[in-house]
Design brief:
This protein is an alpha/beta fold and 406 residues long. 50% of the residues lie in helices and 15% in strands. The protein is built from 16 helices and seven strands. The chain has helices at 6-19, 25-49, 108-117, 122-133, 140-158, 214-226, 241-250, 260-268, 276-287, 292-306, 311-318, 321-324, 335-338, 342-355, 364-377, 387-405; strands at 63-74, 77-87, 167-177, 187-196, 201-209, 234-237, 255-258. The strands form two sheets. A five-stranded mixed sheet has the order 5-4-3-6-7, sandwiched between helices. The protein has a two-stranded antiparallel sheet with strand order 1-2. The longest helix is centred in the N-terminal third of the chain and has 25 residues, at 25-49.
Amino acid sequence: MRSLSKKSRKIIEKSIQEYRGSNSLAELTRRGAKMMLEVGIEEEIMAFLGRDYYERRTDQEGSRSGSKPRTIKVGCGDIEIAMPKVRDAGGPFHSELLPPRVTRMDEIQDIIPLLYMNGISTRKVKKSVAKLLGKRGLSHQNIIRITEKVVEEFKQWKRRDLTELKVAYLILDGTRLAVRAGTREKEAVLVAWGFLEDGSLEPLSISLGSQESYNAWKWFLEDMVKRGLQEPILVVIDGCPGLIKAVKEVFPVSDIQRCTKHKTENVLDKVLKEDREKVKDSLRKIFYAPTYDHAKEAVELFKGKWGRKYPSAVEILTEDIELCLTYYKYPYRHWKRIRTTNVVERSFGEVKRRTKGIGRFQDEQRALAMVYWQLKELRWYGVNMTKEARAILAAIKVSKLERIAA
């Protein structure tokens, strides 16, 4: 405290005395913000005048001329500070910490989009911000203007060039979301994640379709290709027939992995409740087998054990079973991440939880921006690209090139 000016020390001492009479955390935060601003401005004016409070120098121009009240909006509410004034200094004093005509700290501009993108409607954002900013708050139009920053960020992200992204594993899935006001049906939100060849994971694209149809998925994939996306080594999908067809057309050389979690759920739908745990255990022996041969053997055991009682369940399991076992060709350390679409499914769960506060979006751009924000904020682990893993992927690439040449 000794390095501060006399006035700054007085401000701090006064604030400490006031703290002792406050039990509210919000009030303590407000008083702390007030103290820091006043101390910061006092240090600025001391540097501007070249001398401390009450200090007199004949070779220095300018002097203090009292203060004027100034109300500032900060995250913890309105605070009123005493803004110092000077005279005869050859020019006005302007604080760099708190420039003229600034009535709100810039940080609040980041809080508003954060509230909106975390599932609070525009009306609720206005109400919440009023508590933060004091009685004046912000208008509905200002809230919308500020949240538009996130929508614009999404638009730029959606148009970005994908040429430099080396995607090893492409993960695709969709969910239903209430988008346009006045419509009853929910629309399909299509999402693509990518495990890159360096092992990292990042969202690649988000789009909207009336449903998860072949046409919607084909347009979605072709849009990424137009923006430079190269054909991945493996595409992980659920069992949507339209998606399988679109992937085979747009990425004819890529391997396809059908989500084992979706397959398990489809099989269990044909099983009585009292047998589901036992059937699920039999399915685990397939999808968690140590090798491909062990998995195939487990399929035969499943057919023998459950074929008579649940023939429809066996039929669903064996349909496209090879696409469910594609991951056995790939590095063992990656199996857990590439045999399901869990990366996308979990992000959808977070999106749905956050959108409950909004209900139905007014337009598709805001709906997609919400999904984008959630994907951007989520933190997922990538895959471990060991030397062995890189060698396996390189060998698979060579094999694909040889098939194309043949």
